[in-house]
Write a structure and sequence with these properties.
Blueprint: H1 4-11, H2 31-40, H3 46-52, H4 56-62, H5 65-69, H6 71-80, H7 90-99, H8 101-111, H9 115-129
Helix pairs in contact: 1-8, 2-8, 3-4, 7-8
Amino acid sequence: MTNPYTAAMKRIEYDYVAFPDYYPPLPHYMKEGLRRHIEEGSPVGHFLTALLSNDLKEAIFRADDTNRAAIVTWAYWLRNECPQDAQGSPEAVKKWREAGGLKGLAAKWEKDENWQDRLIHDDITRKEKV
């Protein structure tokens, strides 16, 4: 069984942050900060912090013209591509940074000998709730 955080790092492609033709691509110059946030838990600028914290009003006010025009595409990206633990509230963003992003979480899970058992238990618990 693969560590879920290591698998997520392999799955996410940062060289091409875009959607199918019917969605405009996300601004290319946002890629590096976004990659560092997800992989390492690095702080990002005011716009991305507001966006990741689920503060739409602040994100719109902090966005430049290009990001403001792409706000719907950002929402799709957050929902479909961004790890859920890395976004959603100011507290979630803070915890993600403190954990060191995917790399920090992957290292933590690798040190934990029971991570596979816990993952199976969490999956069974989720299925029981449905």
